[in-house]
């Protein structure tokens, strides 16, 4: 992978400030996913979905690292902050509140995955990204879509009395 090509492609077609805001929002979405999956793992009612929840948590941590990798190649070392230092309203929305019921938690996680997918699609469709960045973000979309489908099936199965 040629890093300079990826950086030039991004910076030629995107105003730097817009890219920084969008990529930091995406990183914040993944941080929120990490926290939500951890919170769901702590709920007693979620034992049938432990494996999916664990995979969701690990994918969120991995995706944060990959998003940071993309960001680090385009940021200005003198003026841009680290991703964790950037303000993000998404990080404050991590509480599932009083949800204890497995169906409610599954629905909540599914809705969150849908919002994350919207963020990815917005970033990818509105910005000219290098092939490596586009590939990485595409893999994220594919994996998050899988979690969305699994959660949807779980939600539908419970409505119809079928366990998956």
Number of helical segments?
5
CATH architecture: Up-down Bundle
The share of residues in extended strands comes to under 5%
Number of E-type strands: 0
Radius of gyration: 17 Å
Provide the CATH top-level class: Mainly Alpha
Q: Helicity range of the residues?
A: over 70%
Number of domains: 1
Can you tell me the CATH topology? Answer: Ferritin
Note down, in words, how this protein is organized.
By secondary structure, this protein is mainly alpha-helical. The protein has a single domain (15-159), classed as Ferritin (Up-down Bundle), CATH 1.20.1260. Helix content is 71%, strand content 0%. It is built from five helices and no strands. The protein has helices spanning 3-13, 16-41, 50-74, 102-126, 131-159. Helix 2 (16-41) packs antiparallel against helix 4 (102-126) and helix 3 packs antiparallel against helix 5 (131-159). It is elongated and about 45 Å long.
Concise overview:
The chain is mainly α. Helix content is 71%, strand content 0%.
Can you tag this structure with a few keywords?
about 160 residues; Ferritin; mainly alpha
Helix-strand layout with pairing:
Blueprint: H1 3-13, H2 16-41, H3 50-74, H4 102-126, H5 131-159
Helix pairs in contact: 2-3, 2-4, 3-5, 4-5
């Amino acid at each position: 992978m040629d890093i300079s090509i990826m950086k030039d492609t991004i910076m030629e077609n995107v105003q730097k400030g817009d890219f920084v805001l969008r990529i930091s929002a995406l990183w914040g979405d993944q941080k929120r996913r990490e926290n939500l999956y951890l919170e769901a793992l702590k709920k007693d009612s979620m034992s049938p979905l432990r494996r999916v929840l664990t995979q969701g948590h690990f994918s969120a941590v991995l995706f944060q690292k990959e998003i940071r990798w993309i960001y680090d190649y385009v940021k200005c070392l003198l003026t841009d902050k680290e991703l964790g230092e950037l303000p993000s309203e998404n990080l404050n929305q991590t509480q599932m509140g009083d949800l204890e019921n497995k169906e409610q938690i599954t629905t909540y996680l599914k809705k969150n995955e849908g919002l994350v997918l919207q963020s990815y699609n917005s970033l990818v469709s509105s910005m000219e990204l290098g092939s490596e960045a586009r590939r990485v973000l595409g893999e994220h979309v594919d994996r998050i879509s899988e979690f969305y489908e699994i959660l949807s099936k779980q939600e539908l199965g419970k409505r119809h009395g079928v366990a998956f």
